[in-house]
Task: inverse folding
């Protein structure tokens, strides 16, 4: 079945440590996204990528980094510069098309990674 | 600026009753899509329903329907005959033809009472 796989489901980070969250999709989608969700809150966009080897900052990119070397993969690194990383992280993907049809493409989400500080 | 507003942080509804979750949006783009997602306590985001800005009829998917009032920039989700399993967080979202960003509202937590 096609879908998005995030791993690990739970992740613990020590102070001063970088950690990487994995996101893989086999939906052949061009666009991929990373969101952060704090308890009881909505989703905030960290980074998104519309094509391989290209990505854009979202609303809260500071302290995070991404890469997009393959269409299927969009890993997120939470760096030590991110002072409050405890949150639920969601990866998503969607079809990216120029022009008229872009607006009707929903995002498909992974099951998320819960990151906590030790 | 593009924006999604959900004014109901939480709602309590008796089982089997219909429920309406409010969503208003703001965009200057004439071509856009509106989406509703359900997030159970387990955390995954489930796509429920989509409405396009040029669609003449309101979208329906099973027990879900979208009350789309374009002039008022409103896209309310209606759940008919609510069930205990409908208890979850619900997010309204918008995507325009401008780029691939999708904007989410802050969500409404729905509690269905037995």
Result:
């Amino acid at each position: 079945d096609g879908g998005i796989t995030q791993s690990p489901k739970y992740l613990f980070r020590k102070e001063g440590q970088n950690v990487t969250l994995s996101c893989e999709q086999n939906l052949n989608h061009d666009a991929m996204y990373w969101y952060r969700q704090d308890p009881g809150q909505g989703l905030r966009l960290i980074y998104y990528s519309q094509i391989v080897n290209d990505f854009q900052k979202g609303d809260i990119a500071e302290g995070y980094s991404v890469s997009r070397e393959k269409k299927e993969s969009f890993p997120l690194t939470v760096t030590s510069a991110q002072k409050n990383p405890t949150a639920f992280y969601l990866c998503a993907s969607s079809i990216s098309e120029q022009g008229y049809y872009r607006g009707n493409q929903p995002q498909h989400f992974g099951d998320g990674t819960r990151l906590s500080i030790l | 600026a593009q924006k999604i507003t959900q004014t109901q942080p939480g709602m309590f509804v008796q089982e089997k009753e219909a429920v309406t979750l409010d969503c208003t949006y703001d965009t200057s783009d004439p071509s856009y899509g509106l989406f509703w997602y359900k997030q159970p306590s387990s955390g995954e985001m489930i796509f429920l329903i989509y409405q396009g800005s040029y669609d003449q009829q309101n979208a329906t998917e099973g027990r879900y329907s979208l009350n789309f009032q374009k002039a008022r920039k409103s896209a309310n989700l209606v759940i008919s005959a609510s069930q205990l399993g409908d208890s979850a967080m619900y997010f309204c979202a918008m995507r325009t033809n401008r780029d691939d960003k999708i904007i989410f509202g802050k969500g409404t937590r729905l509690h269905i009472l037995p």
In short: The mean pLDDT of chain A is 89. Chain A has no helices and eleven strands. Chain A touches chain B through 29 residues (CB under 8 Å).
